[in-house]
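seq as requested:
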Amino acid sequence: MAATSLQNNLTISILHAAKEGKYAVGAYNCYNDDGVIAVIRAAEVQKSPAIIQLFPWTIHFQGPEFVRYVVNAAHAATVPIAVHLDHCIETADIELALTLPFDSIMIDGSTMDEAENVALCAKTIKRAHELGISVEVEMGRIEGGEDGLPKVDMGTVFTQPSEAKQFMDQTAADFLAPSFGNIHGGYGPGGAEKSWNLELLANVSRIVSQPTVLHGTHPVSDELFLKAIECGIAKINVNRTVRDEYTAFVAANAGKLELTVLKVQGVAIYTESIKRVMDLFRSTGKA
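struct tokens:
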């Protein structure tokens, strides 16, 4: 079950340790049991903390009982693994999330004007905290879209450091996802290197006391991930970076291998991809 008090909230303890230790913890987007098993196995082998990240799509498609399976499996691991619900945009999704045993959720009010975003976050965070659930917020607007989420095409709004601190104070949020040129779902010519404003990211991370979160990570080079960590990022959302090799294997072998063999070998490939990223983010050995 989720914590009944923020005093022992798993996502908070994982990310504050990362912020203080100057490393990052991967939040791995999972769509099925293969992803969940791969994250847990990688984390246990690497002795790394981890976050299993679900989208609202999962609640609708696989149902609340799948969420409970994920939470129970994560919390039974020999290392700290939290379960986070990413990008709650619809009010109904937020309400449903608060009935489930998530360690943390993200409220995405980035398509609202600032006053509406503050009001929604402040009201919801108070309720979430009473349930022992910590909350991530987005201040500014990150362009693009991800699996099962609507594409945002309203114009990027960069996060301003002084406004970010005020936003966090007003809402009592636990984690901040800043907008500094990062994009969901793929970058244009020049890639993330051309798009990101690392100086802005560093200034935001410096001025807010809460851990900061990196969205928009595909494709991103290893070197740029390390620069983001140097700029204060404590949580890195990872999707295709660790999933592509698994997906390619399944696509090439579905129908050729027995399903049991396909799953065993697919999870092994998935696990190795996650282990590599744990080493890169320097979370290996931090559990």
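The longest helix spans residues 259-281.
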